Amino acid sequence: MGVTVFTDEVTGPIPAARIFKAILDSHNLLPKLIPDKIKSIEVQGNGGPGSIKQINFAEDAPFKFAKHKFDVLDEENFMCKYTLIEGGIIGDKIEKVVETVKFEDCPNGGSICKITSEFHTVGDFQPKEEDVKIGKEMALKTSKVVEAYLLKNLNAYA
């Protein structure tokens, strides 16, 4: 088993505390905002460490579902760490994917999202940047939809 790490940073117009609150409520928010992509999100547990979130994708998605286990939830520092344990890209070549997501405020009033993705692979498989392109593009599009919602609805997650 090997581990391949990818990092990324994305800036946005929403302050860290507000976007983090929206992310924590993604199980309610995302099926409403993008029902053509996400049918539902089921939560097992209280939403904190040890909880499981299963994202059930729309019929035309490349995957039927993705199941994440929350490992760390630090609401004071706007950071969470979770592991993709089932569905999605998990299979013959990838055992699990550990994601660490941290939001930090920017001087302009927005925030920067720092993401670390650890791909735990089977055998000597080495994922490349282009192998994870679909997931990154989907995450970026989703974040832009959430940002647009928050900019339009100023009291949401304030």
Automatic annotation (TrEMBL):
Pfam families: Bet_v_1. Residues 1-153 form the Bet v I/Major latex protein domain. Keywords: Pathogenesis-related protein, Plant defense. One of its GO terms (molecular function) is signaling receptor activity. InterPro entries: Bet_v_I/MLP (IPR000916), Bet_v_I_allergen (IPR024949), Plant_def-hormone_signal (IPR050279), START-like_dom_sf (IPR023393). GO terms for cellular component: cytoplasm; nucleus. GO terms for biological process: abscisic acid-activated signaling pathway; defense response. Belongs to the BetVI family. This is Bet v I/Major latex protein domain-containing protein. It comes from Protea cynaroides. The lineage of its organism: Eukaryota, Viridiplantae, Streptophyta, Embryophyta, Tracheophyta.
